[in-house]
Design goal:
It is built from 6 helices and 9 strands, in the order E-H-E-E-H-E-H-E-H-E-E-H-E-H-E. The N and C termini lie far apart (42 Å). Helix 4 links the parallel strand 5 and strand 6. It is an alpha/beta fold and 242 residues long. The strands form 2 sheets. It has a 7-stranded parallel beta sheet, sandwiched between helices. Strands 7-8 form a two-stranded parallel ribbon. It is globular and about 55 Å long.
């Protein structure tokens, strides 16, 4: 995929990883529309929409595509976090996370694929939490595991339309979603030490992986962990934390 002159849409592009993706796609020469519940003044086109609302997504993607003059790239970054012990988790909390992270991702993927009449590339932002098993995050992990499966199913189905579908799975990344962990003493330092590269990542570093996947024309159906190696950590490693 040639970035110069491409038309791209980023969901959740007003902050965090989505904002970094928007900046890097624009720097590479693409025109970028952002679909978000918050304003993104750095976008070429701004569309206010909640990805959990099907009507807003259908209308928002249509408007973005019309203003961009087509769609070549879609980055599905909109997501929410959450934490609650499984036996204390309400159905409303489960639905809140699933409605954005999985249902919303499906609706956005479907609408973007429909708009890619001449092929294109879709990159979803999943998470290593969809590969690991973390206490108090069952709904988040399940939503991201489901999104990874959706990405691979979509890649299988949409390949005949020359649409590549991949995902980037971040680990702990310094974004607004990470801020609530500051109330956990020593959490940031502990997680950073467990990453193979010895620190937490940045939104720009994850966005680099996203843009790279956009340019790899013979890659589809892959989930790339951009986590500094935190998912390599094993509590039964004979050498412990050495």
């Amino acid at each position: 995929m040639e970035m110069q002159g491409a038309s791209a849409l980023v969901t959740g592009g007003a902050s965090g990883i989505g904002e970094a993706c928007t900046a890097q796609l624009r720097a590479a020469g693409a025109r970028v529309a952002v679909l978000d519940v918050h304003d993104a003044p750095h976008a070429d086109v701004m569309v206010r929409a909640d990805v959990a609302d099907e009507g807003q997504v259908v209308e928002g993607v249509g408007r973005a595509v019309a203003e961009l003059g087509g769609l070549n790239i879609a980055v599905l970054s909109a997501g929410v976090g959450g934490s609650a012990p499984l036996c204390e988790m309400t159905t409303a909390e489960w639905d809140r996370v699933m409605n954005v992270n999985l249902r919303g991702a499906f609706i956005c993927l479907r609408e973007c694929a429909r708009a890619m009449t001449d092929g294109g590339v879709i990159v979803g932002i999943t998470s290593v939490s969809g590969m690991l098993h973390e206490r108090t995050m069952a709904h988040y992990g399940a939503s991201k595991a489901g999104f990874a499966h959706l990405v691979q199913s979509a890649a299988r189905e949409l390949g005949s339309r020359r649409i590549r579908v991949n995902a980037v799975a971040p680990g702990i990344t310094d974004t607004p979603m990470f801020v609530p962990t500051e109330r956990l003493p020593g959490y940031r330092e502990r997680v950073g030490q467990r990453a193979a590269l010895g620190r937490i990542g940045t939104a720009d570093e994850v966005a680099q992986a996203v843009v790279s996947l956009c340019t790899l024309d013979w890659v589809t159906g892959q989930v790339l962990a951009a986590d500094g190696g935190v998912s390599l950590y094993s509590p039964i490693d004979p050498r412990g934390d050495a």
